[in-house]
Amino acid sequence: MRRDLGRHIYGYLVSAAFALFLFSPILWTLSTSLKQPTEMFHWPPVIVGEPSAQHYTAIIADKDFSSALINSIVVSCSTIILTMALSIPAAFGISHLQKTAMRRLLTLVLALRAAPAMIYIIPYFLFFRQVHLVDTKIALIIVNTMFAVPLAIWYLSAFFDQVPREIEEAAMIDGASTLQTMTLISIPIAKSGIMATAILIFIGSWNEFLFALTLTRDDAKTAAVAILNFMPFEGTDWGKAAAACVLMLVPIVVFVPFVEKYVAGPTTTGSVKG
Amino acid sequence: MASSRPKVSSALVTPAIAFLCLATVVPIAAVIALSFGDFNIAFPEKTRFIRLYNYARFLSDGRFINAALVTFILVVVPVVLQLLCGLALAIALKENLVGTRWMRASFLLPSIIPPAVGGIVWKLFLIPGVGGLSYLASLFGHNFEADLLGSKTSALISVIIVSIWFGVPIVALLLLSSLDSIPDEIYEAANLDGASWAQAQCHISIPLVLPAMGAVAVFQALEVLGIFPVIFVLTGGGPAGATEPLNFYAFLTAFTYLDLDYSAAILVAFTTTIVGVCFWSIRQISATRVGR
């Protein structure tokens, strides 16, 4: 089969076509963010003439956007902490239940997450309005945690399943309580899986748009929504919009290899096991 | 020790499950209740029970009917194309050819970027005359200046393409992990029997990933309307409602027209239909699997 020409022709053609399709819009944004204003309307369009960082300095100096970036970071990191505090014990517990109970709970967790996010906007809006938490980071952290917990439980329980039971039992025999076994034995062993889950939670929270749009006004606005301030109305600010997009993409690009490695992992192996 | 374990486990599990139930079941019950009422956000104390009145409004609301149609198109067409394109890409990446390996680590990018950013990225790419698409066309000697977001059909096609762009990487990744789990011996045996690479793909790879494709299709059908932010940025539902699915219409009804009870009715109808169809499909899929 190695000499098969069809394999190479197909592989290279399809990969090239998808590389063009998947990456050209992003690369175009990168190039737009580095352009001089005069190059924006050049015909025929150009990639970059003389790269300039002026759009980046402009958006960093923009108080609204830089504070929105900080909000995004604070909300995402708090969501990770809160979600982990709820999900690590739950996932550890689920992974130590009997098979049928475990499967039932995991299905319930997933079913609770099945409804499209849009159904929650009205009740959450009315609730947070009632308790005066509209336009606060706390509201966003609670909502993001609600969306992250099912995913986190699902992934973490697959990672805890991979911790050798013999080691945990040995600790128990030596007199460790369940809580001690979890914190001192299982969590350190499942560390890389927990890191991967934290990355996924970060991305979910970083990307969240719908609730950041409806539950914030000015103070708690996150970057995913504040980026619309630079929306290109009739040919203005394209460079700033592009630069803001590129900044938003930095953490995502850094995390891509981790996600690629882990996303398919637990879902496939986990489902076989469960 | 063994007997004390389940108790400890349930103590560990309870807070998260309780939080989840509280944060999902209560709001959904509230939306359902709201959809049967006449509710004004300025005078919440005057709320009345009006039975199915909000649902009856669907029938005479042309915009709702249009949005339902758009929803159907924006779920079915992108999911089918995502599966086909995802399979094509997964088969290509499985080969691990020299020079395509970098893609295995990076092709996932469009699926995990913020959807709002994806919307702006595509808006910049599609700017008539000076966008990235015009640049690509100019490389091939074409002068492309059409405003794709300006007319109804091309705007809908653009949204479908962006939706494929968002979904293909994750679909390809899931199918790739399913392809990678097919033992090499099967391909070697086919090779010994004189099968070409293309024949091996048609008779081994594709039949063996078909079951996984069913599950991925259901998963994507639930996810695909998550491109709400893209529509928000790219077309705003326009032109003339051509790219306005039900979730977008419900959003405008609630937060622009402040008609919260009617919006709740739209969302209840939308959610029940889409979740219902997906659960029914999962049952069908698992039934055929057991049948085998």
Task: Please tag this protein with its features.
heterodimer, A: mainly alpha, MetI-like fold, 13 helices, 76% helix, 0% strand, globular, B: 292 residues, mainly alpha
Walk me through the structure.
The complex is a heterodimer of chains A (274) and B (292). By secondary structure, chain A is mainly α. Chain A folds into 2 domains: 52 residues, no CATH class; 212 residues, MetI-like (MetI-like fold). Helices cover 76% and strands 0% of the residues of chain A. Chain A contains 13 helices and no strands. The longest helix of chain A is centred in the C-terminal third of the chain and has 36 residues. Chain A is globular. The C terminus of chain A is likely disordered. With 292 residues, chain B is mainly α. Chain B has a single domain, classed as Orthogonal Bundle (MetI-like fold), CATH 1.10.3720.10. In chain B, strands 1-2 form a two-stranded antiparallel ribbon. In chain B, helix 8 crosses helix 10 and helix 12 runs antiparallel to helix 13. The mean pLDDT of chain B is 87. Chains A and B meet through helix 1, helix 4, helix 5, helix 6 and helix 7 of A and helix 1, helix 3, helix 4, helix 5 and helix 6 of B.
Which secondary structure elements does this structure contain, and how are they paired or packed?
The complex is a heterodimer of chains A (274) and B (292).
Chain A: H1 5-33, H2 37-40, H3 54-61, H4 63-95, H5 99-112, H6 121-130, H7 137-161, H8 165-173, H9 178-189, H10 191-207, H11 210-215, H12 223-226, H13 238-273
Chain B: H1 5-35, E1 37-38, E2 48-49, H2 53-60, H3 62-94, H4 101-106, H5 109-112, H6 115-126, H7 132-139, H8 152-180, H9 184-192, H10 197-223, H11 228-234, H12 246-255, H13 260-291
Antiparallel strand pairs in B: 1-2
Helix pairs in contact in B: 1-13, 2-13, 3-8, 3-10, 3-12, 6-11, 8-10, 10-13, 12-13
